[in-house]
Structures are given as C-alpha cells and as structure tokens.
Write a structure and sequence with these properties.
- The complex is a heterotrimer of chains A (292), B (406) and C (338).
- Chain A has 292 residues and is mainly alpha-helical.
- Chain A is built from 11 helices and 3 strands; from the N terminus they run ααααββαααααααβ.
- Chain A has a domain of 196 residues.
- In chain A, 73% of the residues lie in helices and 4% in strands.
- In chain A, strands 1-2 form a two-stranded antiparallel ribbon.
- The radius of gyration of chain A is 19 Å and the shape is globular.
- The termini of chain A are far apart.
- The model of chain A has no long low-confidence stretch (mean pLDDT 85).
- Chain B is an alpha/beta fold.
- Chain B folds into 2 domains: 199 residues, 3-Layer(aba) Sandwich (Rossmann fold), CATH 3.40.50; 147 residues, Rossmann fold (3-Layer(aba) Sandwich), CATH 3.40.50.2300.
- In chain B, strand 6, helix 6 and strand 7 form a beta-alpha-beta unit.
- The longest helix of chain B has 21 residues.
- The longest helix of chain C has 27 residues.
- The chains are: A mainly alpha (292), B alpha/beta (406), C mainly alpha (338).
- The interface between A and C is large, with 63 and 59 residues.
- Strand 3 of chain A pairs parallel with strand 1 of chain C, so a sheet runs across the interface.
Chain lengths: 292, 406, 338
C-alpha cells in the first residue's frame, strides 16, 4: 500500500511537469487550432535565455520576468515572420513548418550552449514538502504556479474581451472578421502567450530534468497526450490530464508485470486513444459538432 | 686516384646499395593514402538524441589539425572526413559507404554508437577496411577471428561491470543490489557483465529497473528502487539520467552505496550539475585522467592536453569527459599510423594496430597501458576504482584488469 | 469553459483535394523519368546506385502515405511502425528461416496490410489531430516492442539483426548493388502503377469522397468504415514492402532505425512532394535523403538549422509541394506548344 501511495505521489510530481507543458499546448491550440511541434523547443530556448541572464548576474525573478517578456515578443515575431505567410497554405504544409522550426531552434541551442547538462536553480528550494520526501518544495511550487496560470487563463478566456475575441478568431475566423476582430493579430497574440506559458513551463521543469537542448522532447510528447486527454479546448482538462498521465504511467510501470516498465509510454498513449474513442473531445473538452 | 677495376667495383657497389635502399624505401599505399595525405573517415552523431557526443569528433578534428601543423605523420597530412549519422543505423550505413566508395578513406576511425557500428561492421569487414577504435564499449568488438578488421578502444562495459561485481563480492557480500539501466545496448551489455561477474551470487540483484531515453525524468524508477530495500544502487545511465538519479536519491533521503558507470563519471558533465553535496561517497572506475581533477595539473601528459586545448580547440571544455576521450583515441591512431611508416596499406595499418605494446597516451591514468595482439583486440582493459570526495574523485586500490576470458 | 457550449466545427477540408486528372504525370514526362531511372546506373558508381535504391524505397513509403493522407484524408504519423514490421519480417524470415529474399516481400506486404487494417479499426472514430496522436503512439510503441525481452530471440533485441545481401540470380554479371537496384525499380514501378489505378478506380473515388467530406460521402452511400480501414491496410502493406526492401538494402535492422523521427521524415517527404500527388513521392524521398547531407556539408554544427531553413524555403516557395512545379511546367509546355 505504501508503494501505491508513493507511486501516486511520484506520479503527481512528474504529472506537474506534463500539466505545465499541456497548458502551453492548449494555449496554442486555442489560438491557431493546430498543435505546434516546436512548442517544446521554444520553451527550452526561453529557459536557456533565462539561464544565460542568470549567468550574467541577474537575480532569479528578474531573469524570470525578462524571459517572459522576451518569449512573448519572440513568439509574436516568429509567427509574423514565418507563419503569417503560410496562412493560406494547406494545413499539412504548416505542420511541416512547425517541424522546420523545431529543427532550427534545437540546432541553434546546441551550438550556442552545447549539449552538456546544466544545473538550473529553483526559487522554491529542494527540501521535502510538508515532511514528505516524495514531493519536494520545488515540485509543490511548480504545481502552484501551474494552477495559478490555469486560473489566469480561465479568467482571460472567459471574462475578458480579448480572450473572447481570440476564441472567436480561432473557431470561426470568417464570422470573427465580420464583427471586426483582427484575426491575424489574434493569432500572433496567441503565439506570444503560448510562448510565454511555455517559457514558464521550461523554467519550472529544468530544475528537475536538468537543462540541455534535448530536454523537452519527452516532455512535449507527454504534454500533447495530456492535453488531448483532458480536451484540447479546456485548460482545466489539460492540467487534470497532465496529472492523470503522470500517475497512470507510474502505476503501469510499477504494477504491470514484465512489460509494464518497458511499455510505459505506449500503454499510456493507448489509454488516451481508448478514452478518445469513447469521448472524442477528451475528458473535459466541449463536444464537437460537425456540420456538413 | 682509383684504378679502373676498383672504380668499377665501387660503382657497382654503389648501384647495388642504391637499388636495395630503393627497395627498402618502397612505399605501399591503399586507397586513401599517398605521399602527401592520409584520409581518415569518421561517423559521429552530430544531431539527434546522442548529439552530446558530437564533441568527440570535433576534438579529433582539432587534434589532427595540431598534428598537421607539426608536420604531419611521416610527412603526410591527415585529412579527417567526418559525417553525421544522427545515431540512425541506416544513415550510418550510407555514410560508411560514402566514406569508403566516394571519399575513398584509408580507415574508418572511432565511429560512435553500437547500433551504427553493428550496421557497418559486416560491410567494412567485407570490403577489408579497418573499423578502428570504435567509440563504444560493447564487448563484441573484441572478435578478431570473425571480424579481423574491427577493433574497439575503451574498456568494454562488461569488463567494467566485472570490476564492480568483484568489488561488491569482496566488500559487501550480503548486499541487496538495485540496478537502474538504460534500455539499450549499453545498459543491457553492462547488466550482463554485472550478472556474469556476480556469477552464482547474481541473486544479490533484487531489482532491475530499465528506462528509456525518451522519458523526461527517471524519478519514478528511483522511488520504486528505494521501496525494494536495496542498499546498493548501481546506476547504468548516461550523463543526464545519472545526474537526475543523484539528485533524486538525495531528495528522498536514500543513501545506498551508489555506483555509477564510467560513462557518467564526468565531474563537469554530471557531478557538478547534480550537486557536490549529493555526490559524496559515490563509486566509479576510470581509465583516463579527469580534466576537473587538480591533481593532474602538473602532470606532463595533462599539460600537453591543456596546451592543445588552448591552442587548437579553445571552445573545448576540459571538464567534459568526451573531450579527453577524443584526444586519447586520436593520439592512439596517430601512433598506429606512425608505426605503419611508409607501408600504408589497410592490412599493415591493422597489423600495427594489433601490435601495440605498453603504449601510454597522455590522458590515461598512470599505470594503464594499451596492449593489443592478433588475438586481443581490446586495447584498454584496465581500470582503477575511485570514490567521490569533496569536489573530486579519489582513486583507490590497484589498477584492475577487467579482462574477460573469451 | 463549461460543457454547456458546444464546439461547432464546419467540416472544412483538412487535406486539400487533388483533381484526379492531375494525379499523375503526362505520358511524355513519365517516359523521360523512366529512362533516367533505367539507364543512370550504367554511368555512376556503386555508391550512387545504393543511394538511388534508397530513394526508391523511401519513395514507396511516401507513396503509401500519399494514398492514406492525400487519398483518403487520414493523417498518419505512424508509418515508421509498418515499415519496421516489414523490415523485421524480411530480416527474420531471411536469417532465421532461410526464406528467399524475394519471397519475404509479399509476406511482409500481406502482414502489414493486416496490421494496418487492424489499426484502422479503432482509428475510425478519430480524425485530425486525434488520429495524429494515435498514429504517433503506434510509432513510439514500435521500437519499444522490438526491444522487448520476449521477442529477443527472434528480433535480436537492442542489437538488431544483420541481413545478408543477395547476389544477382542466375550468375548474372552485375554487382549486388546493381541487381538490388533493378529489383527495387521493377517492384516500385509495379506498385506505382497499381496505386495509380487504385486511385482512379471506384475505391479511389470512395477514398477521395471520404477525404473531401466524410459526412456527405457517408450520406451518399459510401461504406466509410470499410474504405477507411482499407486505405490504412493498403498503405501499411506498401510501407511494409518498402521496409523489407530497406532491410535488404541496408543489410541491418535495429529498433533505433525505426523511430518517430523516421515517421516525421516520411511526412515531410509527402509534403515536399505534394500531398496526394503520387509522382511527387520520389521528389519527396530525394528531399529527405539528400537535403540533410547538403545541410551537413554547409555547416556541421548547425546542420539541423540549415535543414530547417531549407525546408522553410521550400514551403514558402512551393507550399503545395513539387506538384506546383509540375503544374507550372505543364502550363509552360502548353504555351510553348501553341
């Protein structure tokens, strides 16, 4: 029984990582109706920028805020320069664009900062949280920040004009334009926000997994899976999905004999696919109605 | 003034001497070698999941630049042709064929990765191109009978694991061992060596946890291992995961005897990021000097290495074990090529590589020597154990041979 | 974000339609390409022939993806899994059971057809990004499955299997590379002709109807589930044959050869070649084989970035892939003829 609780707790702490990433994924999906493969790399690059700022002497929170601002601007810049010209192109071509962006960012990070791992500081310390050795204060802090972002996003989308405009631009661009929404800038804004959220995710995750150019690939896969499980239209679902994936994966690894350990990821993904077959919009997503 | 007879005799003698010294000075070349140049081929993962090791190729390029600046090998300059395979075996095959058939290199040197090397082994042996000093510790490269053109360099994973097994059998015979291993050729080879080394007492291993490199963090595995009650933890991990393990162990307040594989023993690459305070007492084994260890600052070999870095590869990080590795193996190749003299056929290069006697590159630990023979294609077989104390590794014990009886 | 609000999605086209007429090359261009493919080996070295064989093999895999995505509109990031099944089938049959290499290919094809058909079943209810995730799951699962201890006896586990390359039959005076190239060429042409006919047939029309508007197709009486799973099956089968050929050409199979990176590369090949345009498959295959080499020769440290930049250039200039160039070419030719 103790092992069970331990694994659940451990699952919650890894799940916090996935939840963080999943939020960024949902954010971009809300803005552009696609998943951005390069999301993880952008988060990684932002984290490196914050690390570099700290190497140059900036205190943690200054670097944090500066990085958020830079990431926001960077996200908008990338969208304007690289993806605005592609809006008329077929969707698959845009996906190819995401892949190209992934390649560029990963390679540049490798060249600038090389591939050895770097320690990344945490503002929350690493001592056991509430006496439990399984969740450190950092992981508790990470969960806290994730929930804070979630609440912020919820209020943004539900209660602000800008949030409403963004949702409208993403789901019904034609109609949105007719009511005067500048859909093009909504998309850019969405990219900027997604980049900023990704940066937060990266800065929260790096203390646990160590900073290096390839740190986000695994996280991104789980983030996608968590976002899809929770429902791509629901930030709340993304966070819940993240925790569920973390817990489930740990339990599979612990309790399924023989292959459980080696097939953790495929089994987790298979579970998600099964959920999707039953609930195509994810656990908390809005049901999708297709009109001919 | 010489008489006519004597003059003819002298001329004849001179002619004979010239002819025979001409025969002695006769040069023999295979594709890839000439009077002015020796072409060396190499395949490294400069991109993809193993790109951290690409720095080895860059170190080697810099080392060969140094050799060329100093006059080359027997007057010939080295041309180092290195391609990226992204750690993908089909790409490695393509690059190997390109090196042999298009770039026409003399040897393929220090290609990295067991899957990539497995993929090109048959081809290179069929084409009789030396696959020299491969950059992987898999045990299977020491097989001169079946693959006479393939040779390893670093101590094999199994021999390293044997050393740990011997140590545990002696120092902690009733230990309960928990193993975390990477689920690939590296991890599995190691685990086999550990089990073979423990022999009848392999049951000391109470738990084996494998992980994939695609997992973001291995924390869950550590929690599981702690729950098994193991008091020895063997970490068969690559640098990132080794560091994560060290950190997590400290976080969950678990203090078993912690053994880490040599691959992840780098102070700069693993221990420092993981935290010196978390790493006290960790055991490992080494065959090379650590760039982070001040005890070698005045060592002549290390000084040469540091001078080389300053002059030819300033971006190289002396704390990165891969850079030290690249230097050592490049130096070994240069030695072999020098020994080959003017007979730069592939066969002779292989022969010279299999005749290294007590060769000591600048960067190996004192007492560790490279020895090869026609039946022994494992150049380095010795290691010395070390314990982490303060901010560096303390070597202890004798130099142990992990030699496996084939 | 309450669930009370429904998300209304207008069934827009996820995959753009390629008119049937434009699906293939004109007769003249086809003959020129064919001539090139047949006669080039006489003038180039063995290594180039090996690379050309690889291009053909990857072109088959991209072709299969074209049928699935460009033809029936189902997005797949999982082709590497079927390729792996085909490759391992050939390798295991050749190395453990001494089956003749040529015979392993139809077996691989049929096996993969079955696998694809089976996978198509649960995939029926998914589309777009959800289907992408499901296929992605398949692609990540495959290397893990291949490494499993249970199968190690056959698959060689993480070490993989070495495959023996066949000699030319009947003692023909050609090298292994040349023989394998022509062998692959014949099979590729056969599969290409089959695919073109498939897409022109009734089944092909059913695929395209499903791609363009699934609900309308279903309302018109097209058996959507049958055709969707059939598309998966055919696509997987062709990919399996490609995998088998790949195993023979490279002479080695290992789990690391068939990761998600490969599936992504095939996807890129399809986009660059032109989604749904079958002749573009070979252009796409050439892109994913040669452009990384070009990127590497430009800059070793930044090869990934250079590749990304080149890819961006391609998709900016020809967002619809090589098909656009062909259309422009056709228009020019028509103008010249006049």
């Amino acid at each position: 029984m103790e092992l069970f609780t331990n694994q659940i707790l451990a699952g919650i702490s890894t799940g916090a990582i996935y939840a963080c990433m999943a939020l960024a994924v949902v954010m971009i999906y809300q803005a552009i109706d696609h998943l951005n493969f390069a999301q993880g790399e952008m988060a990684m690059f932002s984290t490196f920028i914050s690390w570099q700022l700290m190497q140059w002497g900036a205190p943690y929170w200054i670097a944090f805020i500066l990085t958020l601002a830079l990431s926001f601007a960077g996200g908008i810049a990338i969208e304007r320069a690289l993806f605005k010209p592609l809006t008329k192109a077929p969707i698959l071509t845009q996906v190819a664009g995401f892949i190209a962006l992934y390649s560029i960012i990963n390679s540049c990070a490798g060249l600038i900062w090389d591939f050895t791992i770097k320690q990344y500081p945490t503002p929350f310390g690493s001592s056991p949280f509430l006496g439990s050795q399984l969740i450190s204060t950092h992981q508790a802090g990470m969960i806290g920040i994730t929930l804070l972002m979630l609440v912020g996003l919820y209020f943004f989308f539900r209660y602000t004009r800008m949030g409403l405009a963004m949702r409208a631009a993403a789901s019904l661009p034609e109609s949105a334009r007719l009511v005067g929404i500048n859909t093009s800038w909504m998309i850019a804004l969405g990219w900027g926000m997604a980049a900023a959220i990704g940066a937060v995710a990266g800065m929260m995750i790096a203390p646990v997994v160590f900073l290096e150019p390839n740190m986000m690939l695994g996280v991104l896969i789980y983030g996608f899976a968590a976002a899809v499980l929770g429902g791509l239209t629901s930030p709340f679902g993304a966070v819940v999905g993240g925790f569920l994936v973390g817990i489930f994966e740990n339990l599979v690894g612990t309790y399924i004999p023989g292959v459980g350990n080696e097939l953790k990821l495929p089994i987790a993904l298979a579970l998600i696919v099964t959920v999707l077959v039953v609930k195509p919009a994810g656990l908390f997503g809005r049901p999708i109605v297709k009109r001919v | 003034m010489l008489s006519k007879g004597l003059r003819t005799a002298a001329l004849a003698a001179a002619a004979i001497v010239c002819a025979s010294s001409g025969a002695i000075a006769q040069k023999k070349y295979d594709t890839g070698a000439s009077d002015t140049e020796i072409r060396i081929g190499n395949i490294m993962p400069y991109s993809g999941p193993a790109s951290a090791y690409g720095v080895i190729g860059k170190t080697e390029q810099a080392y060969f630049d140094k050799i060329n600046a100093e006059g080359g090998i027997n007057g010939r300059k080295i041309k180092f042709v290195s391609y990226d395979d992204g750690y993908s075996p089909p790409k490695a095959v393509e690059q190997a064929r390109k090196l042999v058939e298009s770039d026409e290199v003399l040897v393929v040197f220090n290609s990295l990765g067991t899957p990539s090397n497995s993929a090109i082994q048959k081809y290179l042996n069929a084409k009789k191109v030396p696959q020299l000093f491969v950059a992987t510790g898999a045990t299977k490269w020491n097989d001169p009978k079946d693959f006479p053109w393939t040779m390893g360099w670093q101590p094999s994973y199994q021999s390293e694991a044997h050393i740990y097994a011997k140590y545990l059998l002696k120092e902690k015979p009733d230990a309960k061992i928990g193993v975390l291993f990477q689920n690939d050729d590296f991890g599995k080879d190691y685990l086999k060596g550990l089990k073979d080394g423990l022999g009848a007492k392999a049951s000391m291993i109470v738990s084996e946890e494998s992980y994939e490199t695609s997992e973001p963090s291995i924390d869950g595995h550590i929690v599981k291992l702690k729950a098994t009650g193991a008091d020895v933890f063997i970490s068969i991990t690559t640098p990132k995961f080794a560091a994560q393990a060290i950190k997590k162990l400290a976080e969950i307040d678990w203090h078993p005897l912690h053994i880490v594989s040599n691959v992840s023993a780098s102070v700069g690459g693993v221990i420092k990021p993981a935290g010196f305070e978390n790493s006290q007492g960790i055991l490992s084994a080494a065959y090379a000097k650590d760039g982070a260890d001040p005890q070698w600052d005045n060592d002549p070999g290390m000084k040469k290495f540091l001078d080389f870095l300053a002059k030819y590869y300033p971006e190289g990080n002396r704390l990165d074990g891969s850079v030290v590795f690249g230097y050592g193996v490049a130096q070994t190749l240069v030695k072999v090529l020098q020994m080959s003299g003017d007979d730069l056929t592939r066969e002779n290069v292989m022969k010279q590589a299999a005749s290294l006697k007590d060769f000591e590159p600048d960067t190996l630990l004192p007492g560790i020597k490279i020895n090869t023979s026609p039946t022994d294609f494992a150049p380095i077989e010795q290691l010395q154990m070390m314990r982490f104390k303060g901010e560096k590794w303390d070597l202890f014990g004798d130099i142990i041979s992990g030699e496996l009886s084939n | 974000m309450s669930a009370a609000v429904e998300e209304v999605v207008t069934e827009g086209q996820a995959v753009e339609a390629v008119p049937k007429r434009a699906m293939t090359l004109g007769a003249g261009t086809s003959l020129v390409v064919l001539a090139l493919l047949v006669f080039t080996p006489f003038v180039v070295k063995n290594f180039i022939i090996f690379q050309m064989t690889q291009v053909l093999i990857y072109a088959l895999a991209v072709l299969a993806l074209n049928i699935l995505t460009g033809g029936s509109g189902q997005f797949s990031l999982g082709q590497s899994a079927f390729y792996a099944i085909g490759a391992y089938t050939s390798a295991i049959l050749m190395e453990h059971f001494n089956v003749n290499y040529a015979l392993t290919l139809p077996i691989a094809g049929v096996l993969c057809f079955g696998a694809g058909f089976l996978f198509g079943q649960p995939a029926l209810r998914l589309s777009g990004v959800y289907l992408a995730l499901a296929t992605f799951a398949l692609a990540t699962a495959m290397p893990q499955l291949l490494k499993l201890g249970y199968f190690e006896h056959w698959t060689g586990g993480v070490q993989g299997l070495v495959v023996t390359k066949p000699d030319a039959p009947f003692g023909l005076p050609m090298s292994q590379d040349v023989w394998l190239y022509y062998f692959t060429l014949v099979i590729s042409i056969a599969i290409y002709v089959f695919s073109v006919n498939l897409l022109r047939s009734r089944s092909g029309r059913a695929f395209m109807a499903i791609r363009d508007n699934e609900i309308a197709a279903s309302a018109m009486g097209v058996n959507v589930s049958l055709y969707k799973t059939l598309a998966f099956g055919v696509s997987a089968g062709i990919t399996g044959v490609a995998g088998g050929l790949g195993a023979i050409a490279v002479q080695f199979v290992a789990p690391d050869s068939y990761t998600i990176n490969f599936a992504i590369a095939l996807f890129l090949g399809m986009v660059v070649g032109g989604v749904g345009w079958l002749p573009g498959s070979i252009v796409g295959a050439a892109f994913i084989i040669f452009v990384p080499n070009i990127a590497e020769s430009i800059s070793k440290g930044l090869s990934g970035a250079v590749f990304g930049v080149l890819l961006f250039l391609v998709i900016f200039l020809i967002p619809h892939g090589a098909r656009q160039i062909a259309i422009v070419g056709q228009q020019l030719a028509a103008r010249v003829r006049r």
